[in-house]
Amino acid sequence: MKKENCRLFDEKLTNHVKAALKQNAEMTAGNIYYHPREGGVLAKCIDISCKKPLHDAGNTHPASSSPEKWLEAYLIRKAKANHWILDLDGHEFQFLYSQLQFRGTESDKPRPLDLLLFERDTACLIVMELKVNRALTTAKRELCYYCKRLNDSMIQADLKEIFRLEKNIRGVKGFIVWPKKKRQDIKHENNYGPLGVFEYTPWLDSKVLNSTLKVKFDLCIPATKWRGCFCDLNHS
Question: Is residue 229 a part of any domain in this protein?
Answer without folding.
Answer: no
